[in-house]
Amino acid sequence: MAITKHHHEPITAPEVGGIGHSVKRLEDDRFIQGAGNYVDDIELPGMLHMVMVRSPFAHAEIKSIDTAEAEALDGVVAVVTGALLAEHNLAWMPTLSGDTQAVLATDKVRFQGQEVAAVIATDPYIAEDGAGLVFVDYEPLTAIVNPMQGLEPDAPIIRTELEGKTDNIAYEWESGDEALANEAFAKADRIVELETHYPRSHPSPLETCACVADVNPATGHVTIHMTSQAPHAHRTVFALVAGLPEQNIRIISPDIGGGFGNKVPVYPGYVIATAASLLIGKPVKWVDDRTGNLISTGFARDYYMKGQLAVTNEGKILGLKVDMVSDQGAFYADAQPTKFKAGLFHIVTGSYDYPAAHVKTKGVFTNKAPGGVAYRCSFRVTEASYLIERLAQNAAYELGMDPAEFRKKNFIQPDQFPYHTPTGFVYDSGDYEKALDVAMEMVDYEGLRAEQKQAREEGRLMGIGLASFTEVVGAGPSKDYDILGLKMFDSAELRIHPTGKAILKLGVKSQGQGHETTFAQIVSEELGLPFSDIKVVEGDTDNTPYGLGTYASRSTPVAGAATSMVARKIRAKARQIAAHLLEASAEDLEWEVGKFFVKGSPDSSVTIQDIAFAAYTNHPEGMEAGLEGVQYYDPPNMTYPFGSYIVVVDLDQETGEWKVRRMVAVDDCGVRINPMIVDGQIQGGLAEGYAMSSMQWITFDETGNCIGSNFMDYLIPTAWETPRFELGETTTPSPHHPIGAKGVGESATVGSPAAYVNAVIDAVQHLGITNIDMPVLPDRVWQAIQDASS
Amino acid sequence: MEITFTINGEERTEEVEPRRLLVDFIRSQLKLTGTHIGCDTTSCGVCTVLVDGTPVKSCTMFAVQVDGRAVKTVEGLKENGQLHPIQIAFKEEHGLQCGYCTPAMMLVGSKLIEENPNPTEDEVRWAISGNLCRCTGYINIVKAIQSAAAAGNG
């Protein structure tokens, strides 16, 4: 089997380890020895422990809260309620979408699991005992458990605290040109329709959210060790929420046990622990339990989507219309750029060339946890990619075309880039057909189609599902992208020490992506310093430059670019020092990885290490000493990774069970810095895509009880179920990124769910089945087959 | 209650509250924080340690139950200053990303290859099916365990 590889050829030696080298990760030495340093590992003198009291009801008035028995328990230091926080003006806080959410409920609870009180004790077991002794008198109200119910005219209003609020609408937003879309639809031979629900899912990193808040009573300085994907943004939010001087707040985000978007928002637990530490004068640790994590912290997805694709009988797409309703939970708390109310869902036009699209979205409050985080996804790109790829596959069936042929007929062609989409994106680069061709060759597409034909004749069901996705990542250009007004640039500070070693400080924060290695490699590429001589520091707001953090695959596109640029700044200064050392003019010098030499006399050279030493010991007169710099990078455009995935499933008609036989993933994320790490990111994303399509599911009963509140009900695939992935690649560099990289952490989660589901649909579409909602559970498949045959 | 046990080869006697879970005892009292907590329901396996050589989810055992027994945690994998082959293999094969499930995965893997020096891919996948990983998609974890087995045979 031919696997096409198009690696960037390394220009550095393996021991230098620049771009293109699969060097082993520098961070691993501590992790393999159990010496990682996660928030729960932090213990401070006199530290107290906090446990949350949560609402058992989805919607209820709080009549009273009795904390007396809890407070009387030996070892309990305090019980914090919303009333106490209200005295300090901390009962409500802003969400990342500009709404406000309760820190501790005062008037009523709006979802099951909402924080009602917090017990602080000398020991976590005692705090847990105390939580059981807090008695809350509730008056249950009717719960709204889906957005359609929330839109009914007589639906109870969830956000009664908002003056004049007479409905449950969180936002309304549209994108594209409706008139143009109508014109396109009028010309169409057929309209292909798909209504599908992208169910509520939860990122569920294995480490839950946690913090140790430490307010020094003598100085008033606040240090918060917290599971934060965005420590700088969180510091600013804390300054705004609590009115604390920002220089007195230090957020330390140590090792993080997975984030996937779950650790982007500011949660009530962080604020309450900080308030408690301030009031008590001792450090307070809060470590959420798994149920708390699942029922109260940022969920993802929950979009009810209706898509229509206007096509000609020859298989050309003319236009797209989408009407979408999102279930926002009780507060509008999407972690997303301010300007875009449904995230970047308008990337829904996909990898295809057509002039017209219109997207209409409506967010609805329900009695569920708030969230809408970008779960391994760049702000709702996952939902968008899923819809267009499901529609494309269904359109092919309706036209009697092969799904691969239909896609090829509509792909944006390489010479059309930069490509302006009908909803306003400017795709930077791509070669979609090539990626699909590589995938088809790897999987032996023609052979599989022949086998499928044969299988159907024999009464066996097998399916081949495709997805040719385009992502939009690397938020983002400051003219369009901000969160709470903070522009989405990022930063890098690089210092070269006298001995030629270096420290690189970043505003982003790894949660397992391998930043300590990858970003060192970018410096190696630019300066020729061995990657192992470079220490990468992140996650401490006192010691790193400002940045918006790691999510939405933005670290490599934004902070990676900043790293590259700051290294180039330093190289420019190094040239001046080299000229001084070589007694030549700077213009007469040439750079070769790791050294400058005089043009025409390669023997006359100085290494970057020599230059670094000279910067501190023998710098030219009139030049500032030292060799360091800071770069803030405001990206000129987003980056647009893409790929083609093909899934092959065998489906048991009697039980509805389906098994993945093959999963071939061809990704193009531009230039790959560390191919080993890139492959690891893709494998992880493919597993999460499989999880969402096959089992992960947060759902609710009619009274708003969360089904999926623990890992016995919320299923995460083990090594046993997880498919064996086969990876291929193409490389189309981003033209506007300094090293041509596009970002890769989320491509597989974005692109793969449609491929899995399309494979199942492909196995049964000849029976007339066009949709089964995720998670595609065996009973849903079985039911669809029963319904189709009756 | 007073219990006597060995931890990573060292005999210890400790006073422990009867209701204290083994994982909390290991982390808070023995100060060995390489063992993690992920779910409270015996589902995720990040708290796995070896008790008398058998993988056990330490969130579902009381500390008092290890009285008279031997406990091994990730901190005990390295012996005489030498990393265990499985530790080396996890790094070499990129078998970890965030590192949170890694200690437990390595302990389960070390036990497997001790009993089965040539595990097949399916045998490895079955052996670690009580341990969740959210980052890697498992492929490189399986490779790491197989590669550690091969190193042990070499």
Rg for CA atoms of chain A: 27 Å
Q: Numbering strands along the chain, what is their spatial order in the largest sheet of chain A?
A: 3-7-1-14-11-12-13
CATH fold field value of the largest domain in chain B = Ubiquitin-like (UB roll)
- How much of the sequence lies in strands of chain B comes to 5-15%
SS-based class of chain B = alpha+beta
Number of domains of chain B: 2
- Tell the overall outline of chain B: globular
Features:
heterodimer; A: 790 residues; alpha+beta; Aldehyde Oxidoreductase, domain 4; Aldehyde Oxidoreductase, domain 3; seven-stranded mixed β-sheet; five-stranded mixed β-sheet; 19 helices; 35 strands; B: 154 residues; Ubiquitin-like (UB roll); DNA polymerase, domain 1; 2 domains; 5 helices; 34% helix; 15% strand; globular
Could you explain the architecture of this structure?
- The complex is a heterodimer of chains A (790) and B (154).
- The relative contact order of chain A is 0.13.
- In chain A, the strands form ten sheets. Chain A has a seven-stranded mixed β-sheet with strand order 3-7-1-14-11-12-13, sandwiched between helices.
- Chain A is globular.
- Chain A is built from 19 helices and 35 strands.
- With 790 residues, chain A is an alpha+beta fold.
- Chain A has three domains: 28-36 and 490-633, Aldehyde Oxidoreductase, domain 4, CATH 3.30.365.10; 39-141 and 208-256 and 263-289, Aldehyde oxidase/xanthine dehydrogenase, a/b hammerhead (Aldehyde Oxidoreductase, domain 3); 380-473 and 639-789, Aldehyde Oxidoreductase, domain 4 (2-Layer Sandwich).
- By secondary structure, chain B is an alpha+beta fold.
- Chain B has two domains: 2-76, Ubiquitin-like (UB roll) (Roll), CATH 3.10.20.30; 85-153, Orthogonal Bundle (DNA polymerase, domain 1), CATH 1.10.150.120.
- Chain B is built from five helices and five strands, in the order E-E-H-E-E-E-H-H-H-H.
- In chain B, strands 2-1-5-3-4 form a five-stranded mixed β-sheet, with helices on one face.
- In chain B, strand 1 (2-7) and strand 2 (10-15) form a beta hairpin.
- The longest helix of chain B is centred in the C-terminal third of the chain and has 15 residues, at 139-153.
- At the A-B interface, helix 1 and helix 17 of A face helix 2, helix 3, helix 4 and helix 5 of B.
